[in-house]
Amino acid sequence: MTKKKVVVQEVGLRDGLQSIPQIMPTEAKKAWIDAAYNAGIRHIEVASFVPPRLLPQMADAEQVVAHALTLPELRVTALVPNLRGAENALKAGVHRVVAPISISEQHSLANVRKTPDAMIEEFQRMRELRDSESAWAQTTVVAGLSTVFGCPFQGYVPEQDVCRIVLKALDAGADVIALGDTTGHATPRHVGRLLQLLSSVIEGKVTSLHFHDTRGMALANTVVALDYGIREFDSSLAGLGGCPNAPGATGNVATEDLVYMLQSMGFETGIDLRRLVESRDILKRAVPDAPLYGYIAREGILDGSVPQQLSSHGVQS
Amino acid sequence: MTKKKVVVQEVGLRDGLQSIPQIMPTEAKKAWIDAAYNAGIRHIEVASFVPPRLLPQMADAEQVVAHALTLPELRVTALVPNLRGAENALKAGVHRVVAPISISEQHSLANVRKTPDAMIEEFQRMRELRDSESAWAQTTVVAGLSTVFGCPFQGYVPEQDVCRIVLKALDAGADVIALGDTTGHATPRHVGRLLQLLSSVIEGKVTSLHFHDTRGMALANTVVALDYGIREFDSSLAGLGGCPNAPGATGNVATEDLVYMLQSMGFETGIDLRRLVESRDILKRAVPDAPLYGYIAREGILDGSVPQQLSSHGVQS
């Protein structure tokens, strides 16, 4: 029996750290990447290439990327809010650049100081830049759509707006589309409806989902997304995270809880949950004031746990 | 368009209160019942009929039931761990008696000091008692199975053990079966597998599910249970709860979060979420030391919320 694989991308180093006031030292970031890697994580969004004056937390992006690239088979992603950032990230050698494209105009202006349509134009320039150097041919250009399920400013985000931006992002050259629930508005049926709609428009292009657990819906949403064939999810160790330009957003879903659920459902993540939980110690030491979340870390991993015993009873998919 | 209805049964007055050291005054219990009723809740498990020396928190069960019965259309349930308790509950006039029948022998011994099979025999005597008086003919006898998805003592609970007890409980005269994840072991695929298995054995007899959010899986589990046609769920206001004889168990899933999710999915609960959240004030005043949980209460209800706007866009099921 082979299990279905699911990719869990750790985004705490970017989405988590950008939302807390304390700056994590570069050495601690490297230690975090190493610990995640040693726990089996093979996809990490390690940094955001933004001007240090806007986000001092990310001033060491190049060094962090350089370290991450030393780890075999680690897929290294960076967020790039503009062309300059994309150029720096491409030069640094990342495997994937993600451009944050908000569906909500107000959120887009707050987050990247561009309208969604202006951001699509910037995104097209990023794609053209990627194509301009053969050395970058293997770098994936991701349209990271944000406020897909709701916006702290405008509230409801119409599904037709999402469709419009998705189609424009593909026209502009997106290799793949990632959907972000930036502020935890998503609910299970909304996730199902939107994925159904998008799959009929652009089958196979939406590859990953990014849930925040603001209203406790992240894992329920994940169950629905799995039903719709999504096999890549973002999460943050200890639920670290949020969005500095989105009032009310709390952290991403905790990586430990997501991995626990996925494993219990028979999915192969390649991740050692115990090592993952132990890696929280790095956060406790390096950013002691940041609130840490997560059910599994609190309750402990069940010894001879239900997931493993279930899987020996044939619960595999 | 008619929405599908889902019953949310508030169990905080029983499962919640039995797990905290502070005793809630009878008047506060009545106020809680009134507030829940005014928020639209029509199913409440109001008490447990146990000897007061074992559970002083429930010494006022008769008074609490008497008050609940004054509210029109409120369906009043009581937990009854033995025949004596069932007799008292029937005499008090409850609409449903629930007998806690553990699948796990160790948990059963800790909880009711009987093996599962001995508890089934007791349950059969409860059913016979119910049948002995025409005045009680309308009272539903529920087999409330506990540790269905795992046990703090034995760990994994085999599905064949659940099947065996379900069949014995039906033989013993259960009108319906409720499945309890007493200590938050359940995970989405486990829920789906067990409901699939049981539906092929005893279609239509499993009517409700009872999840604890110990490991953060309760809402994800609920999504799966909804897929399998379950339309009744237990929950506790503010996630109050646990099980005194199950180490590590934290509260039931928070009623507010469950209702939020169900409404966002287009289900009709009849519950006013704002009033429900406001009713937490009763707990803050009456049991100030009890930890209160819940995402929706923390984040606030979205004004012009996504669920309502979505439902005006036709999200109904």
Automatic annotation (TrEMBL), chains A, B:
UniProtKB keywords: Lyase, Metal-binding, Transferase
CDD domains: DRE_TIM_HMGL
PROSITE patterns: AIPM_HOMOCIT_SYNTH_1 (PS00815), PYR_CT (PS50991)
InterPro entries, alphabetized: AIPM/Hcit_synth_CS, Aldolase_TIM, HMGL, PYR_CT
GO MF term set: lyase activity
Homology family: Belongs to the HMG-CoA lyase family.
Protein name, as recorded: Hydroxymethylglutaryl-CoA lyase
